[in-house]
């Protein structure tokens, strides 16, 4: 294989064009855009809330519970999506052509059902404990 500089010449040209466009956009917005600095524009942005008071104040435990529940139910998709993609063959393919061996299809299916049932129990438990109720 002959890898000379001429092989990568179009890539270098493309990189130069991309950097040129990005740099010119930054310069144009700095020159043309409004630059009137006001107290409101210079104020720190804190998730749509005015930054008043001490930054080290105590938060309600509900925020942490909601974040942990979000992570639990978000990580669930990391297990479900690959299984859903690999467990079944595409339309028009035989079952043997799927990514998952035929011998594992039913055990993996029941394992995923147990996983979903565990998540459902966790959801009902959190609901009964009142984690989803805001004051």
What does this molecule look like?
With 135 residues, this protein is mainly alpha-helical. It has a domain at 61-129. It contains four helices and no strands. It has helices spanning 9-32, 39-42, 61-87, 105-129.
Order of SSEs: HHHH
Q: What's the overall average pLDDT, rounded?
A: 83
Query: Per the principal axes of the C-alpha atoms, what is the gross shape?
Result: flat
Which structural class should the secondary elements be placed in? Answer: mainly alpha
Spatial separation of the terminal alpha carbons: 68 Å
The radius of gyration is: 27 Å
Helix/strand layout:
Blueprint: H1 9-32, H2 39-42, H3 61-87, H4 105-129
Helix pairs in contact: 3-4
Write a short abstract of this structure.
With 135 residues, the protein is mostly helical.
Salient structural properties:
single chain; 135 residues; mainly alpha; 4 helices; 59% helix; flat
């Amino acid at each position: 294989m002959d890898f000379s500089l001429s092989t990568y010449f179009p890539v270098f040209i493309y990189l130069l064009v991309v950097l040129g466009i990005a740099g010119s956009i930054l310069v144009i917005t700095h020159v043309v855009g409004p630059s009137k600095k006001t107290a409101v524009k210079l104020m720190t942005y804190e998730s749509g809330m005015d930054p008043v008071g001490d930054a080290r104040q105590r938060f309600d435990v509900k925020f942490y519970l909601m974040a942990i529940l979000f992570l639990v139910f978000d990580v669930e998709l990391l297990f479900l999506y690959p299984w859903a993609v690999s467990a079944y063959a595409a339309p028009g393919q035989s079952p043997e052509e799927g990514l998952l061996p035929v011998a594992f299809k039913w055990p993996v299916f029941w394992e995923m059902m147990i996983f979903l049932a565990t998540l459902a129990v966790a959801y009902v438990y959190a609901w009964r404990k009142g984690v989803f109720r805001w004051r």
